Amino acid sequence: MSEGKGLLSEMNDRSREVFRRVVEGYLASGDPVGSRTLTRSMSEKLSAATIRNVMQDLEFLGLLDSPHVSAGRVPTQRGLRMFVDGLLEVGQVAVEDRERIDATLGSNTPDVATLLDQVGAALSGITRGASLVLAPKQEAAIRHIEFVSLGPDRALVVLVFSNGHVENRLFTPPPGQTPSSMREAANFLNALAEGRTLSELRGSVQRDIAARRQELDVLARDLVESGLAVWENMGERSERLIVRGRANLIEGGPESLDIDRIRTLFDDLERKRDIAEFLELAEDGEGVRIFIGSENKLFSLSGSSLVVSPYMNADRKIIGAIGVIGPTRLNYGRIVPIVDYTAQLVGRILSDRALG
Q1: What CATH number should be reported for the domain holding residue 202?
Q2: Which residues, including other chains, have CB under 8 Å from residue 298's CB and lie 6 or more apart?
Q3: Domain end: 86, 120, 150, which one?
Q4: Tell me: the pLDDT tens digits for 52-104?
Q5: Helix (H/G/I), strand (E/B), else coil: 307
Q6: Are 251 and 102 contained in the same domain?
Q7: Cα separation of 153 and 71, whole Å?
Q8: Where are the beta strands (DSSP E) in the chain?
Q9: Eight-state DSSP code of residue 214
Q10: 148 in helix, strand or coil?
Q11: Confidence (pLDDT) at 234
Q12: Fewer C-beta neighbours within 10 Å, C or N terminus of the chain?
């Protein structure tokens, strides 16, 4: 049993109801909730003084806080965690929300990245937060590789995958390359590539280069190694973190997060430093996970929450993740099922495309 659920079970009905109503009132309005407000909504007729005493006890337990001199209380991060774990009532996805998500994913967009970008835009619009979509790695087998010289210091590697996906990547070749050394490099890779994914080919090439160095022309070997460096280190990884709706946080009004910290957060995201950690957050188990404030190791912002869910391929392997970030005053009961529904739908559609 988690600490929060244990504490909840030890609280009497009155304390539990006061706590629940304070959190729900805060999530709905963003304002501290006072004892006089609660006298009008409690199921048991209680005086404001009695409710204040209960609030003081909850504050002593670290579940509520007084942000101002006023008698109003807001939940602490610990209190929000306990509410989410033990008292949160998750609803169904509203019909209009479901229709907007379905319409996005029902489009005949052939490109997966474009489709996921549309998903992110819809998700940020529906939740009025910022959406994060981690696109899957390109795991299809490679059909063909070609190097194209664009000048003395620029070259293009063309990757054709077995599912028809084509990627063109610019890189700086080693000095002194000739058309023949480029052809030799491409022939070397194509002989190894058949039936292998990019990550499998990368490992195979490294082993073959070590074993067959004397067979490769020096310039061709340098080109192959340069090409490998492009695949790994040039920021053009096959996985992409798509961020949409940042304005929803930056322009969210006085209760939104600190603007400078939000800009830093999104600068970090757009530099893609945290892609691996974002997927790691979701990989710890199926279903939606909620990270509140400093629990959120992806963004060390005390005032933010992340609701994230992985999505899977037909083999039930996690291939990406979808999330919504916003202030801790998120409507968790509404956003959790939206994220869950979207992640499951994306997984099904990508699986169907792979099988088709």
Answers
A1: 3.30.390.60
A2: 274, 277, 278, 281, 291, 306
A3: 86
A4: 899 999 999 999 998 876 668 999 989 999 999 988 888 889 999 999 998 88
A5: strand
A6: yes
A7: 68
A8: 64-65, 74-75, 130-135, 142-151, 154-161, 166-171, 240-244, 289-292, 304-312, 318-327
A9: G
A10: strand
A11: 41
A12: C
